[in-house]
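Limitations

Structures in this collection are predictions, not experimental determinations, and the ligand pose is part of the prediction. Treat each record accordingly. The example that follows, with iron/sulfur cluster as the small molecule, is included so readers can see exactly what is and is not provided: the inputs are given verbatim, and the output is the predicted complex.
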Amino acid sequence: MELYGYAGKVLRIDLNSGSISKENLDVEMARDYLGGQGINTRLAYDIIEPGIDPLGPENPIILGAGALSGALVIGSSKLSATTKFPLNGAIGTAVACGFAPQLKWAGYDNVVITGASGEPVYLQIFDDDVRISDASDIWGKDIFEATDALREKHGDDISVICIGQAGEALLKISLALVDKMSHLGRGGFGAVMGSKKLKAIVVQGTRGVKMADPELVQRILEFVMGRALTDRNRERWIQYGLMGVADAWIDNAVLLRDNKREGPPPEETKATYGLKPWSEVVETTPWAGPSCITCDKNIIRIRKGKFAGLETTASVPISSSGYFGIPFRIDINSAVKCHDLFQRYGIDELDGAYLIELLIELQDKGLVTSEQLGMELKLGDAEAVMQATEKMVKREGFWDSVADGIPGVVGKIEGASKHVVQQKGMAHVMDGRACMGIEAFGYLTNPRGAQTFSLVRTPATALPGVPTELLQGLVNTHYQLGAGAQKRIFHDGKWNVGRITPHIENHNTACNCVGLCYRFFIGRIYNAVTIAAAYSAVTGIPLTAEKFQRIGERVYNLQKAANVREGFSRKDDSFPERWLTEPIKQEGRELWLQDYTKTDRLTREDAEALLDAYYEERGWDPKSGIPTKEKLVSPGLKDFAADLEARGILT
Ligand code: SF4
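Predicted complex:
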C-alpha cells in the first residue's frame, strides 16, 4: 500500500551493540496516534520498564517527526523527543523546532535509540547511509563549536541535535539544541544523550515527502498564509519574538525577582530591561524554523558596550532580560553574556537561572553559606552568575547537587524546600498569582513538570484581561468543544480554568503528533478543522476535527498512564505553597492568587476545587488524579488499562 505523508520506516539503533535496523512503520499505529509525540509515546510505553534509571542504557531516546513534517505545511517542523527525564523521573515528550523535515526526507518517521556507547559518538542519518561515528574530537566542545565542526565536515544543509558540556557532565538541568537554536528537553534530555556518550545526531534527507492531494494541500496553505500575512503583529513577532511582549510582562508581574516574591517596579524596569533599551543594545536578526513564516527566534548581537560584538542565538528572545537581567539586576549586556553561556553549555535557563536566584535567598536566610558555595552570590554581580554557571557545569563541590536541579538542592540544604517554587522539580515562568490563566494552570498538570504546554491561541491567557466572550468565541472556533463542555466551562461571565485546560492540552498534544507548532504566531492561523483537513490532504487518511482532538486526548492519557506507572499522582500536581500563602509585591500592591478575572481570591480549598474540576473534566479520579479504567478503555487504551490493572494501580 502506498503511504503518503509518512516516510514509512522506523530506525532502530542500539549503541550497546552498534546494530542499526529499519522496520516498517505500523500503519494502524499511525492512524491511531498520528505521528510525532503520539507514536513516540506508544513506543515508549512498551520500551520503558517502570523504575528504570533515566541515565541508564535501558532508557531510550525516541525521536518522532510529525505526520505533516516535511510536507512544507506552514509551521510543521516540530520534532518530538520522548524519554524518561532524569530531573524528576517523568516520562514525557520534549518538542523542538527543526530536524523533523530532514528526518522525514531521509526516509524515517521515528528513530529509537537504546543502549550506551563506551566512547563518544555521534549518529549520522543520511538517507540509507546510517552510521555511528567517532565523536572524540567534538566531545568537550560547546554546542556551537561542535555543531560548526559537524557542519564543516558534512556541509551546511544538515540538521543537528547537539549537547554541550552540561549534557556530557549529566546535569539534570541540561538540554540539547537543534541547529544551535531550538531548545530540546528541559529536565535533562542533554544528560540522557550524555549518558549514552551520544554527542550529536546529524540528519540530511533527499527524498522529499509524497502527498495524497498536493493541490488541496496548496489551497489549505494559501488560506492559512492569508491569515498569517494579515496578522497586525507579524512584523513585531518576526523582529523581536517574545521580547515584543516584555513590557506587558513587566507591567503584569509575569517576570519576577527575589525568588518569585517581587514584581519589579514597571516603569523603572521597562526603562532598563524593556523592548526599547533592549533594541538599543542588541541587534536582532529573525530566525525561522523550516516551513515557518512568522518566526519567533532571533540571532542576537550586542551592538555596543561590554561584550560588544558577541553574537548568539535566542530561541526565546525574552530570556536574557527576563531570566537574567531582572532577577539578578544585571545590565542587558551581561544578561546576554550569561544567556550565551547557557546556550553553549546546553543548560536549561529556566531551571539554571532559578537555582542561582534561589541560592541567593537561601544564602540571605543563612541556610547555605558562601563557604559551602565556594563563592559569594549577590545581586548585581554578573561575574558571580557566570562563575556559578561554570561551577555547575563542572559539578564543583557543593554545585554537584545544584547540577541535579531543584531536587538536588532540596536534598542537600535542610529547610530549603519551603522556599522553592516548583512543579515536579521544575521552575515556573508563569506564576498563577500574576495571572491564573490556562498557561499557569497547565504548569501544574503537565506530567513532565512546569513546562510550557498549555499555550492558548491568541488571545493568550498568560496575561490578564481577555474578555470571557472573546475566549469563548476562540474556543468555539479553534478547539471544537461540544456544547456540554462549553456549558461546564463558561458560566456567569466567568470560566473555569480547571475545566478548560484539558481541552487545550489535548489539542496541543495532537499538534505535536502532526508536528505543528502551537505557539501564538503559528497557532492562531490554524484551528482543529484546518489541521484535520491538512492531515487528510497530505496523508489521504480521513481525519475530522473531533477525531483530531480525541487522538490528542488518547495520547495525553497514555502519557499520564506511563507516569502513573512511575508513581505520579495528584500530590505531584498541587499548587506551589508560595502561590497559596504569599502575595507577589509590586510597587505597593499585593497580588494574591485570584481567578483569571481577578474578582475572587482563591483559597487553598478553591485551588483544590480547580484541580478536582480538571480531573473530572478529564474523566479521571479526582481523589488520586489518575485516569479511571473506564476512561482508558473508552479512547482505545484497553491494553494499557489492563497493564495498570495487573500492576494493582487501577482498581
Ligand atoms: S513560531 Fe517559532 S517555534 Fe513555531 S515554527 Fe516558527 S520558528 Fe518554529
